[in-house]
Design brief:
Layout: H1 2-21, E1 25-30, H2 38-53, E2 57-62, H3 65-74, E3 81-82, E4 85-86, H4 90-112, E5 119-123, E6 130-134, E7 145-151, H5 154-161, E8 165-169, E9 171-174, E10 179-182, H6 184-194, E11 199-204, E12 209-210, E13 219-220, E14 222-224, H7 225-233, H8 241-253, E15 258-263, H9 269-275, E16 282-285
Parallel strand pairs: 1-2, 1-11, 2-8, 5-8, 6-9, 7-10, 11-15, 14-16
Antiparallel strand pairs: 3-4, 6-7, 9-10, 12-13, 15-16
């Protein structure tokens, strides 16, 4: 009996958060090591389904850089990067679409649809969702690498209205009619703003933002936008975390209320963040409640 009571207490702790976020949109950017482990993938899918069943509207954006590189190598092609951007010629773009749309997107959707017909996979280029602008580089032609020029949310809004979860591959279509490879963090930020999401959550391979990334005890649980900007200016945010932090800041600038960075390899990371008092990872917002 005592075990049952303790479970009931845990469920009741979630009640105020269910009331707060019911009917609201939350964008989740999914990637990293969480996409390389079937158990973690399914755990995240289960969390997303749980969120939907209690009345929250999750929207998923994913990339797949390591998977694309691996597939290229298997095809005898050597991935090439300039300033962290993948040089994307015609052959590489075909691989990008094959991996993102035909493999990763499909797997995420299938994991959620084990619980019913809940998720719908779409690509930003063939759905009219993401209009791309070719990304220019001062010395090199990057090929079909783009940035977000415009988001047209109609297709996503329709999926949400039908009670299902959109799962979006980060590819856009340019004015020239060609598909462009776009950074998934940037797509997530732009889409969260366009959909007027309550919050955006980046699932990463680390626990959040640290004062010192070499000190595991220096995790920062909450930051204001200004404090986050200061860390970036001081170059305290480094390596792969920087684009995620910058994307969080862009989302906040455009009206998203809260941004979170957390470790997607922690079991039920999303539920812990959304439905518990403690939460996990790092939260960023314009002003922190005292």
């Amino acid at each position: 009996m005592q075990d049952a009571i303790e479970k009931a207490k845990i469920l009741m702790q979630a009640l105020p958060y269910i009331k707060e976020y019911r009917g609201r949109k939350v964008l989740i950017k999914f990637g990293g090591k969480a996409m390389h482990d079937e158990q973690i993938e399914q755990s995240i899918a289960n969390d997303l389904v749980m969120m939907r069943y209690v009345g929250i509207h999750p929207v998923v954006v994913h990339g797949g850089g390591p998977e694309i590189s691996q597939y290229m190598k298997e095809q005898g092609l050597e991935p090439k990067f300039i300033d962290g951007l993948r040089v994307t010629d015609e052959a590489t773009m075909k691989i990008v679409k094959k991996v993102l749309v035909g493999q990763i997107n499909k797997e995420i959707v299938e994991n959620m649809n084990k619980h019913g017909e809940l998720a719908v996979g779409i690509s930003g280029d063939d759905s009219g969702l993401i209009e791309a602008r070719k990304k220019e580089h001062v010395t090199t032609d990057l090929g079909y690498v783009g940035s977000v020029a415009e988001i047209k949310t109609a297709v996503v809004e329709e999926i949400i209205k039908s009670g299902r979860i959109p799962v979006i591959a980060s590819i856009g279509k340019g004015a020239d009619g060609h598909s462009y490879n776009i950074n998934a963090d940037s797509v997530a930020s732009a889409l969260a703003a366009a959909l007027k999401c309550e919050k955006i959550i980046y699932l990463t391979n680390v626990d959040g933002i640290y004062n010192d990334f070499d000190d595991e005890h220096s995790l920062i649980s909450a930051l204001t936008y200004q404090e986050c900007d200061d860390l970036v200016s001081q170059k305290a945010v480094k390596r792969g975390m920087l684009p995620k932090v910058l994307s969080c800041m862009r989302a906040l600038e455009k009206g998203v209320h809260r941004a979170h960075i957390l470790n997607g390899t922690v079991q039920h990371a999303l539920l812990l963040e959304v439905f518990t008092d403690e939460g996990i990872g790092t939260m960023i917002q314009h002003g922190l409640e005292k």
